[in-house]
Amino acid sequence: MPRDLFSTAPKEETLVASPESTTPKPELSDGTEGTVAAGQDGQNDFTIYRDETEPANAHPLHHGRAKETEEDNLHPYVQTLSISNLEDCVALEKAVFPENERCSREKFIYRLTVCPELCLGLFSTVSSPPTANAIPTYESARPPDSAKPNLKSVLIAMIVATKVGSHAVTDESMDIPRNWQELQGSAGSNTDTRGHQEHGRTIALHSLGVLPAYRGRGLAKTIMKSYQQRMETSGIADRIALLAHEHLVKMYKDMGFEDRGKSEAKFGGGGWIDLIYEFAEHGPGS
């Protein structure tokens, strides 16, 4: 993980998740009923609920945000990421994480190529950003409809992950095989224990990030809960593991993760906490 962990903003409950590191009711915030949003392939349907208890802009993270625009009337939808989203992911990562904790472009290329099915994006359609730098993923975004080129499907939050053989995120799992391109499509066995392990039963979450302009809306919880549900029902793993700094542990515990204590990972300077979300079938007492 560690590389894509959250930023250092304490108590920011809609921040990012693990560094290189569902669905109870998600939280959004314009006070309207939940709506069902579908991905471009029409198969990734999730219900997005809007917070009915907190008035718009009441959250402290709303302070200082640009005046209300279309981003205050979100109609987000989740969709599996692919290598075509590379520039979006790089831009979002840069906007969210400190330099020493960012995922490199090389690692994004690897993960979006080798295991894109483990990577999920939260998108919203916008016509233009409120300011030049408000939505750094806008420039690389693509129109969702060729008949309306003024609209763009913008990545506003993401989860990027791999599978590993251990029960926690390690420095080795955050690395990538040096010759992974040569191994692509090879029938031979790969003995390199770095990076994605196809037969591993733990999903190592390396990046969970929400664009700063969209924080304070519960989007981190929204995408995480959708991700938990999708991965659990797929049957491809037994748990999700991530690394977090101490001030974000409570947020993850509220999402169902268990605090497993100090991590041995040294990525980004260390100081991480191991957090594990066991799928129901494999949880304590099962």
Automatic annotation (TrEMBL):
Domain N-acetyltransferase, first and last residues per copy: 136-280
Highest classification ranks of the organism: Eukaryota, Fungi, Dikarya, Ascomycota, Pezizomycotina
Matching PANTHER family: SEROTONIN N-ACETYLTRANSFERASE (PTHR10908:SF0)
PROSITE patterns recorded: GNAT
Recorded superkingdom: Eukaryota
Example of a GO cellular component annotation carried by this entry: cytoplasm
Region (Disordered): 1-41
Keywords: Acyltransferase, Transferase
Pfam families: Acetyltransf_10
Keyword Amino-acid biosynthesis listed: no
Protein's UniProt name: N-acetyltransferase domain-containing protein
Molecular function in Gene Ontology: aralkylamine N-acetyltransferase activity
Entry annotated with the keyword Transferase: yes
